[in-house]
Amino acid sequence: MIKLEGFRNPHTPNWPGLLANLARKGTPDRVYHMELFHDPEVQDALCERFAIRPKLPRDHKFAGYERMALVNRLVGWDYVCIWPGGLGFEFHNATVDDVGDLKRTSGRTFRDEHTGPISSWEDFKKFKWPDPTSPEVTAPFEWCSQHIPEDMALVAFTGHICEELSWLFGFETLCFLLYDQPDLVQAVADKLFAMYDVAVARMLQFPRVKMVWATDDMGYRTGTLIGPKEMRHYVLKTHKRLAALSHAAGRPYLLHSCGNLTDIIDDLIDDVKIDAKHSFEDTIEDVRQAKNTYGRRIAMIGGLDVDFLCRSDEQAIRGRVRDTLDKCLPGGGYCLGTGNSVANYIPLDNYLAMVDEGMLYGR
Predict the structure, then answer these.
(1) CB-based contacts of 234: which residues, under 8 Å, 6+ apart?
(2) What's the pTM?
(3) Which residues are 209's β-sheet partners?
(4) What's the rounded Cα separation, in Å, for the pair 10 and 24?
């Protein structure tokens, strides 16, 4: 078990400082940590190691948010991420054995890339869409506004536009339909636009929601999932609307997206007007290099490559954290974190070494 010097002083959240850092208002007085989430198995392991004891029973509807707040505070976060309720779909999935260090017994689930619940106009007409006006959508925000400690911000998760297009059709089917039945693709895109337009407006009515974080994988290693032209037409239009809603309410609009977005990064910055980008993979783009390109125009989050974290020793991880902060922290606009999320296959000590070094940096 590694020695954790940075954890000796309990973290005091400072979400106004986090917002100022994301707005690039100068070099921050400390390192800010940001991630999408911890896998549930990682949360369990952290609770066990650090003797965290949530009060709510595990089967309580919102027990996950109480546990999230406790774990997030432990590892230096200033916020809790909230998923809207009632906006889920039943996709076609496949499950394989999980071989991570913190293995989940139910296996790891992936979307079926071949088919989805919609493949024809007949499917579309019968499909039951979630109701964005349902009380269920805002129920998590209502509970968290009352029960999450006041010194932590709430972050609204939303905007799976490209992902849900590919999941509702199946990625393979979507590629065919873009040429064979673009009107059907447009109809589904319009439904997603309308759903998120209403839902995000409702989320922004909660004063404790301080930012909106769209989580929408748009690419793979060498390019966007669909052509840049199609991406602008079917996907970025909705993100532009959601960013406008966020900005009108005085909140930044962050984007998590895996993949190579080179062909649309200017669209995202200049047209959609995202305030920060998350998800960096060394084989696509090193965050230390991106800081000197579009990192001068928006904030950047994370960048400690997940594969690197899985394979490296403590000394290498701590060295890379220091080098990344040396290059990315000056002037603000950078938050330390993994390149994607805290997955259950990242060795826990390796993740903690990254966090600990960030806590020690500059002291």
Answers:
(1) 161, 162, 165, 185, 186, 189, 226
(2) 0.96
(3) 154
(4) 26
Length of the chain: 363
DSSP single-letter state for residue 233: I
Dihedral over alpha carbons 178, 180, 184, 185 (to 10 degrees): 0
Residues 200 and 246: beta-carbon distance below 8 Å: yes
- C-beta atoms surrounding 190 within 10 Å: 13
Nearest-CA neighbor of 154 among 99, 80, 245? Answer: 80
Q: How far apart are CA 54 and CA 64, in angstroms?
A: 9
pLDDT tens per residue across span 118-137: 999 999 999 999 999 999 99
55-62: long-range pairs with CB below 8 Å, 24+: 61/143, 62/140, 62/143, 62/144, 62/147
Spatial distance between the Cα atoms of 316 and 327, rounded to a whole number of angstroms:
17
Indicate the average pLDDT of the chain.
Answer: 96
Between the CA of residue 235 and those of 83, 116, 150, 244, what are the distances in Å? 20, 18, 35, 15
The token duo for 28 is 């921050």
- For 177-222, write each residue's pLDDT tens digit: 999 999 999 999 999 999 999 999 999 999 999 999 999 999 999 9
Go through the domains of the chain in sequence order and give each one's CATH number: 6-360 (3.20.20.210)
232 burial (CB, 10 Å; 0-12 / 13-18 / 19+) is middle
pLDDT for 47-74, tens place per residue? 999 999 999 999 999 999 999 999 999 9
- What span, in angstroms and rounded, lies between the C-alpha atoms of 34 and 77? 6
